[in-house]
UniProtKB/TrEMBL annotation:
SUPFAM superfamilies: C-terminal effector domain of the bipartite response regulators (SSF46894), CheY-like (SSF52172). This is Sensor histidine kinase RcsC. Residues 30-146 form the Response regulatory domain. It comes from Pararobbsia alpina. Residues 285-350 form the HTH luxR-type domain. The gene is rcsC_8. GO terms for biological process: regulation of DNA-templated transcription. The modification 4-aspartylphosphate is found at residue 79.
Length: 352
């Protein structure tokens, strides 16, 4: 997080541009202050930092939009009257982005005529404070709007993900929310983990249970946190962004289990999707539909998932040359000439 002096130097061109900013803390709400008067920026920045917020600043509307292209703050404190692009035009452009629909924009203005107040609300503002600003009032208003906005985003996520096997996890692996389907899949995923996976009894027991917690006696700690193997993978993902998904090979029941990070829920929380693929059933279905042998159906299934001959050979245990022979038979039976055409037919069949 930049100090006020550093922020002003960024804006004046004596520091590198915003893309080189260090990562903002996950445990603090971020407020973007937009004002063309450095003294106002200094006062508001110091006040909000003292109240526990991380602060970004901009001296004009264009700079504010540039910052919003890089990060979505928890609220914007926006000067209504600025040279060039005023606050009303800036707010209209902010709200034109769907991801900013719940972003609270609070206007700062010396114009208390009803015409200007109405204009602020019309372009998407949620509140306004009058200049000269009273720091305590600004902090109180921002706190109320940040809390309301975070609750709304969380509610939207819950509604959107309620029918999916999705959960929200913090960086330490603690589960803050999970759908019923995710709860069920975490249990089955836990039961399918390799025997060498760390024991659930080694997990911390002091974490509070998630609102939608487990009851199975076989995995009591999974109610609060991700299973160890998932948690270790998630920690690596947060650290370097690699390993976009964690895939479990079929274990006994022939079900392939995959975990994927979809993105952030709120600052410090990530959405994880848990998927299950019944490879055995899909292979049987492909074989029945197109008159394939079991091996040909396996090859076609993995071809439809974008795997190369070498990948397919390693997955199902055969030489790439043998995979290629199976593909020749598959192409003839499907009456196609290319891998892409065969894969498209398999994907279409699987989606029906």
């Amino acid at each position: 997080m930049l100090s006020h002096d550093e922020s002003i130097r960024v804006l004046s061109g004596t520091l590198p541009p915003l893309p080189t900013l260090p990562a903002l803390p996950d445990n603090k709400p971020v407020i973007l202050i937009v004002d063309d008067t450095p003294d106002n920026l200094a006062l508001l920045s110091d006040t909000l930092q003292a109240a526990g917020y991380a602060v970004l600043v901009a001296l004009d509307g264009v700079s504010a939009l540039e910052r919003l292209n890089l990060i979505t703050p928890d609220a914007v404190l926006l000067d209504a009257m600025m040279p060039g692009m005023d606050g009303f035009a800036t707010c209209r452009l902010i709200k034109a982005e769907p991801r900013n629909r719940h972003l609270p924009v609070i206007f700062m203005t010396a114009l208390t005529d009803s015409e200007h107040v109405v204009q602020g609300f019309r372009v998407g503002g949620v509140d306004y404070v009058t200049k000269p600003v009273r720091p305590n009032e600004v902090v109180a208003r921002i706190a109320a709007h940040v809390q309301r906005s975070q609750a709304q985003r969380q509610a939207d996520l819950v509604l959107e993900m309620g029918m999916k096997a999705a959960l929200i996890a913090r960086s330490n692996g603690e589960i803050s929310w999970q759908s019923e389907l995710a709860r069920q899949r975490l249990v089955s995923m836990w039961n399918a983990l390799p025997a060498t996976s760390p024991s659930p009894s080694s997990l911390p027991s002091s974490l509070p249970l998630a609102a939608s917690s487990f009851s199975p006696a076989s995995s009591p700690a999974v109610a609060a946190v991700l299973p160890p193997l998932l948690r270790d993978w998630f920690a690596r993902w947060i650290e370097d962004g690699a390993n976009p998904q964690l895939s479990f090979d079929a274990v006994q029941d022939g079900v392939r289990r995959v975990a994927r990070v979809l993105g952030r829920a709120t600052r410090g929380d990530w959405v994880i999707l848990l998927e299950e693929f019944d490879d055995a059933t899909q292979t049987i279905d492909l074989a029945s539909r197109f008159g394939l042998t079991a091996r040909e159906a396996e090859v076609l299934l993995w071809l439809s998932r974008g795997k190369t001959n070498r990948d397919i050979g390693e997955i199902i245990g055969m030489a790439p040359r043998t995979v290629n022979k199976h593909l020749e038979h598959i192409f003839a039976k499907l009456n196609v000439e290319t891998r892409a055409a065969a894969a498209a037919i398999a994907v279409h069949a699987s989606s029906r």
